[in-house]
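Action item from last week, closing it out:
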Amino acid sequence: MIRFVLTILTLCSPWCRAAIVPQLTLDQLVAGSDCVIQGTVLRSWPAWDQGRQFIWTHIEVLVRERWKESGSSANRTVVLSEPGGTVSAQTMQVGGTAAYRIGEEVVVFVYRTPVGYLRAIGNGQGKFTITQRPGSPEKYIHSDPAGLELIRGAVSKMNGMGLDEFRRTVQNLIAPKAAH
């Protein structure tokens, strides 16, 4: 019996590491976000929440453009927060969190969590990395929601889309909603 259980666990382990979530469309990302920002990751640090129950990794982003706002904000930086991290040799891992690298250019669809932190929507689906192909002046977006098993959706169809086209598409989705 133990051998059977170990075999099942071994076969299931690739799926057990991923959070299974519905894949969001671009319209759902826009509608569900409080703001959409384009910027550069400056730094990150892990810390306990106020109740010292959960570890969060906080990411400071220098904002280049605000594509959508939930109010006026003159702040040049925004602090995003993703659950998980390591504090004093204590590690908390959460499947489906967006990973950020210092110096990385990003577009992030952000919502405010119940505890007040700003987080990428859709378990990291709202975080896009901006890249530039060698020899090309054009910038492109790429989504890589690591740790997620996605169920149907359109986010992966946007990978490789030009940044300018992506911005226009997002702004066209925001414009009708802002008119109401």
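Closing note: The chain is about 25% helix and 40% strand.
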